[in-house]
Each structure stands twice: as structure tokens, then as C-alpha cells.
Amino acid sequence: MKSILFAKNIQELFFQLKNNKELTVVGGCTELNELPEKSISVYGIPDLSRITRHERFLEIGPGATLAQILTIGQTHLPTVLHDALLSIANPIIRNMATIGGNICTEGHRHTLFAPLLALDTKLEFRNQTETRIEPLQSIKKVPEGFVLTDIRIPLLYPEVSIFRRIGPEHAITQHSASFVFLGDTERNSLVDVKLAFAGPFVFRSKNLENSLIGHRLPLTKKDIDEIQTMVEKEFDLASTDQMISDVVRQQFLNLTRYSFEQLT
Ligand SMILES: Cc1cc2nc3c(=O)[nH]c(=O)nc-3n(C[C@H](O)[C@H](O)[C@H](O)COP(=O)(O)OP(=O)(O)OC[C@H]3O[C@@H](n4cnc5c(N)ncnc54)[C@H](O)[C@@H]3O)c2cc1C
């Protein structure tokens, strides 16, 4: 028989994990087609569901539900994060689905991944004895034996913020992906740019972004063509041997062009 445990606090979670090596850590279980034999949920653990708004970043526990995060309000959340949260599933699922589950799902990256990546989110993982803080960009999967315990999201409000879904609305299939563009300008030049894609694989190139910082504005058609060629080259390199359809690739490139056109 399958069993799911609920812990009162973080100490109890780690106590259970120490004494029962077969336990899988879960959130709201909306992602899992089949429940593991034995699981323990972070959902409802107050220490792991807290949302704290600091001056420069948002600190969210992995057990916070998507609905709970949306209650912070549109004006207090980075636009791309707010739009991405609202695009996920429906209000009933969002009441159970956790941010931790959205990030930790293995394989195909889910809707929040690209916005969190573009915002330079950092993740805290813990086991009984050790705490590790890693940028989301460097995470391929949850480290063996660790639990995601905290998510730190910089509060960025750039002039141009674009989030778009590729593939079906309000559901995840193998054709799903998310696209994010953040662009900031100052006195006719580009001071910050972030471009992220996540779905069948993850794309973000800091080299590319850095090479664009300082570019004079407005961008001309020739500038955009040149940028587009650079992006295309980097994206194709990153997607070699990845399961990505021509349609998804083309949509990514169209969205990139559209985003840079907002800087003309
Ligand atoms: C009808 C429907 C529509 C959906 N639409 C979307 C959509 O549009 N976009 C989208 O992104 N998703 C969608 N989903 C999938 C899912 O609801 C979300 O991705 C959700 O955020 C997953 O969170 P969860 O808490 O339910 O994860 P769970 O199912 O509980 O867990 C998912 C995975 O994460 C691991 N995990 C969870 N928490 C932790 C932790 N703290 N530490 C380590 N590992 C952990 C689990 O072991 C598991 O492998 C949809 C689901 C349904 C049923």
C-alpha cells in the first residue's frame, strides 16, 4: 500500500528521511502520474512554505503553493514570474501545486523554470548535515539525498519583461517550453539583457548577454539581424542532440526577434 507522510516541521522531515531511506520528498503531487511507494510532503510545513519579501529579493519555501505566491500581488512580483504562475494549470491545481515541485520535476523543464532562470534565482538544498546554495542555472537535478529547502528570487523590474509559453496553454506536453526576455536601458544604451528558454532543454548564454550590454539604442534592423544570427548560432549549438522540434525552435527565434524589436 502506498503511504504519504506529513511532517510538522523541518526537523521532523529530516528525522523521517534519516530513519526511512525509501522516502521520496514530494510537494502537492499534481505532477506525479503515480505516487511513489513511500513519500513525505513539504506541503503545509510552515518553515518550508513561508514567503518573505526582502528589499532586493523574494524568499520562498518550496512548499508554498502557486496560488499562495500569486496572493503577493502583481505589483510585488517580477512581471514574468506573475505571468508564468497565472499561466499554469487552473486555480484548483494551483492551490495544491508547489513551486518546489515545479522546479524539481526531472527531465522536461516546467513553466516556472525560464522565468526563475532569467531572474538569476538561487536554490538552497539541505540534507541532515549540509546546506548548499546553488544558482538555478547550474542545477541539472536535485543532488542525491538533498531536499530543496529555499528559493531566492531577485526582485528585478526591467523596462522590457516578456514571458511567453510555447506549446499548449495550461498544460505540459513534450511541446511545452517557456521563453523569457528581460531588457533594461539607460541613456540610449542597453544596460542589461537576459534571455532564457526552458522546456525539452535549457538555454541561457551569459556570454551572449554580456556581449550585448552597452549596445547603443535604438536598435536598427541591421543590429537586430546581427543579434539574431548570434542567438541562432548559440541556440543551435546548445540544442545539438536535444529533443527539440523545428516548430519550437522557430517560435523561440520569432520571440527573440520580437523582444529585441521592443528596444527600437
Ligand atoms: C491539469 C494539469 C495542468 C498542469 N499544467 C501545468 C502547466 O501549465 N505548467 C507547469 O509547469 N506544470 C503544469 N502541471 C504540472 C504540475 O501541476 C506543476 O508543475 C506543479 O508546480 C508541480 O508541483 P507539485 O507540488 O504538485 O509537485 P509534485 O508532483 O509533488 O513533485 C514533482 C517532483 O518534484 C520533486 N519534489 C517536490 N518537492 C521537492 C523538494 N522540496 N525537494 C526535492 N524534490 C522535490 C518530487 O519528488 C517529484 O519528483 C499541470 C498539472 C496538471 C494536473
Spatial strand sequence of the major β-sheet: 4-5-8-6-7
Fraction of residues in helix: 25-40%
Q: Strand fraction band?
A: 15-25%
User: What does the largest sheet look like?
Assistant: 5 strands, antiparallel
> Shape from CA axes?
elongated
Would you tell me the structural class of the helices and strands? alpha+beta
* Helix and strand sequence: EHEEEEHHHHHEEEEEEEHHH
Q: Which stretches are low in confidence, meaning pLDDT under 50 for 5 or more residues running?
A: none
The N- to C-terminal Cα distance equals: 61 Å
What hetero molecules are bound to the protein chains?
Answer: flavin-adenine dinucleotide
Gyration radius, to the nearest Å? 19 Å
Average pLDDT level: 96
The helix count comes to 9
Number of strands: 12
Describe the fold and architecture.
By secondary structure, this protein is of the alpha+beta class. The chain is built from nine helices and twelve strands. It has helices at residues 10-19, 66-70, 79-87, 91-94, 99-104, 113-118, 206-212, 221-238, 246-261, and strands at residues 3-6, 24-26, 38-41, 51-53, 57-60, 122-126, 131-135, 147-154, 160-166, 177-186, 189-198, 202-203. It has a five-stranded antiparallel β-sheet. A hairpin with a 4-residue loop joins strand 6 (122-126) and strand 7. The mean pLDDT is 96. The structure holds flavin-adenine dinucleotide.
Topology:
Layout: E1 3-6, H1 10-19, E2 24-26, E3 38-41, E4 51-53, E5 57-60, H2 66-70, H3 79-87, H4 91-94, H5 99-104, H6 113-118, E6 122-126, E7 131-135, E8 147-154, E9 160-166, E10 177-186, E11 189-198, E12 202-203, H7 206-212, H8 221-238, H9 246-261
Parallel strand pairs: 1-3, 2-3
Antiparallel strand pairs: 4-5, 5-8, 6-7, 6-8, 9-10, 10-11, 11-12
The chain binds flavin-adenine dinucleotide (FAD).
